[in-house]
Task: inverse folding
């Protein structure tokens, strides 16, 4: 797998995981188990903050997937980092 394909696959994987996490959080918040919730309020809040923080921090990466100059820059940087050091 070349460097650029790896970068794009990583972005797609991150988006997929965020989507799954979002749906999981909404499902657990809508759980109708009365007072017997599967998680504590702290756990819900922590997961929600983690999801939101990750969405904010990955925004340049998401834009890079559709922006050829930025995507090329990401690929170039990744390839430099992936080369063995002598």
Result:
């Amino acid at each position: 797998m070349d460097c650029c394909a790896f970068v794009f696959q990583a972005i797609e994987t991150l988006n997929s995981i965020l989507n799954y996490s979002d749906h999981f959080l909404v499902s657990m918040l809508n759980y109708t188990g009365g007072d017997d919730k599967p998680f504590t309020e702290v756990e819900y809040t922590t997961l929600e903050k983690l999801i939101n923080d990750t969405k904010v921090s990955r925004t340049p990466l998401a834009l890079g997937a559709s922006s050829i100059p930025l995507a090329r820059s990401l690929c170039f940087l990744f390839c430099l980092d992936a080369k063995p050091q002598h």
The mean pLDDT is 74.
